[in-house]
Structure formats: C-alpha cells, structure tokens
Specification:
The complex is a heterodimer of chains A (113) and B (112). Chain A has 113 residues and is an all-beta fold. Chain A contains no helices and 11 strands. The model of chain A has no long low-confidence stretch (mean pLDDT 95). In chain B, strand 6 and strand 7 form a beta hairpin. In chain B, 36% of the residues are buried. Classes of the chains: A mainly beta (113), B mainly beta (112). Chains A and B meet through strand 5 and strand 10 of A and strand 4, strand 5 and strand 9 of B.
Chain lengths: 113, 112
C-alpha cells in the first residue's frame, strides 16, 4: 500500500531534549516536506527536499533541521525543543514537487513542556 | 509576501444546507489544489485545477478556478455529516519557485 509513515504519532518531551521525528514513503517520490499545523494558521512548511541531499527552508525553519540521505526517508530533527514548537506535524511527499499531489502522513502531535 | 486568504474560517450549517469556501491569492497561480482534513486526520487531496475559468465537479462538490487564476472556490451542495472537516486550498505561484501557498482552511461544522 502506498503510504507516508511518520513516527511517533504522539510525543511529550521537555525543553532542550533533542528529538527526531521519522518520515518514510514507499512511492519513490522525489519531493518530501515537513509542515506544522497550528489552530487558525493552517499548514506552514518547515523544510522541503527536492531530492536526495537537496533540502531547503520553508516558511518556518527556525529550530528545526532535516536531512535526506535516502530517497524514502526525511527525518525532522529538533535539536533543542522549546514550548513554542508544540504543534501537530505532518510529513508529505509528492512525485516531483509542488505542482503534484501531496500525500500526507498521519501526523505527529508533539508537546514540549 | 505571497499569501492565500481563505474565508470563512468556520462555517456552521444544518445538514442539507450548502457550504462554500473561498480562496484569494495575492499572486497569479499556475494551479490550485484542494484538500480535506477530517477531524483527527491528515489532509487528503481532493482535486487540482489548472486552467483559467476551470470548473470541476465531484458528486456534490463543485470546484472553480477564477479567470485570472488568483481565486478559487469549493461549493458543497446539500451537506452531509460525512462532509465534516477542514477544507484547504493550496496554490502554486506562477512566477516564482516558491513552494505551495496554503490557505488557513475552512472548518465545516454540521449543527446538531
């Protein structure tokens, strides 16, 4: 089954404790991205990747890191989480980029205390 | 900066009433996509519009793309409980490499 898999689905952590949210897709998509969703603000892009080893900042990259060492994986790293990063996070992939259908993972709800 | 305004933020309707959400872009778009997010779920692609003035229908849903390719709408006829969720538009700016610009979403709520 074609899908985007995020883990974990839920995470509670404390300020400053490094964490990684994993994202994997099995559709051989070139384009992957991370979004955060906050009430009233819709989806805001954090980082995106056009292909392996090619990443770029989205609208709200501060406090986040990403890497794309393999085509299928695009982990999101919070080196030192802060409470303002409490949010719902979605990973998405598409065949070649922004003009293509975006397939979303189920989401990761993160709480930073 | 580039943005897409989506209104209203919420719409309460009685089951059987119609629902409409509108998106207006500050820049010309090469295409616009619509997504639906059920409560507790993730956004799911509904449709993509590419041509100026394009109208597409999916059963009770009608999608329009404006002549100037700067606005779009989604209209649902005779809403049902299965329509509950948040509807997002996402546009691709025509003249830049900027990524998808997302509207903030319209939440459809069915009154009990």
């Amino acid at each position: 089954e074609a899908q985007v898999t995020q883990n974990p689905r839920y995470l509670i952590t404390v300020t400053g404790k490094k964490l990684t949210v994993t994202c994997s897709q099995n559709m051989n998509h070139e384009y992957m991205s991370w979004y955060r969703q906050d009430p009233g603000l819709g989806l805001r892009q954090i980082y995106y990747s056009m292909n392996v080893e090619v990443t770029d900042k989205g609208d709200v990259p501060e406090g986040y890191k990403v890497s794309r060492k393999e085509k299928r994986n695009f982990p999101l790293i919070l080196e030192s989480p802060s409470p303002n990063q409490t949010s719902l996070y979605f990973c998405a992939s598409s065949l070649q980029g922004r003009k293509n259908i975006q397939y979303f993972g189920a989401g990761t709800r993160l709480s930073v205390l | 900066g580039q943005q897409v305004m989506q209104i209203p933020q919420y719409q309460h309707v009685q089951e059987g009433e119609d629902f409409t959400t509108y998106c207006n872009s500050s820049t010309t778009l090469s295409n616009i996509q619509w997504y639906k997010q059920r409560p507790g779920g993730h956004p799911v692609f509904l449709i993509q519009l590419v041509k100026s003035g394009e109208v597409k229908k999916q059963k009770r849903l009608t999608f329009q793309f404006g002549e100037a390719k700067k606005n779009s709408s989604l209209h649902i006829t005779a809403t049902q409980t299965t329509d509950v969720g948040t509807y997002f538009c996402a546009g691709t700016p025509m003249d830049s490499n900027y990524q998808l610009i997302w509207g903030a979403g319209t939440k459809l709520i069915i009154k009990p």
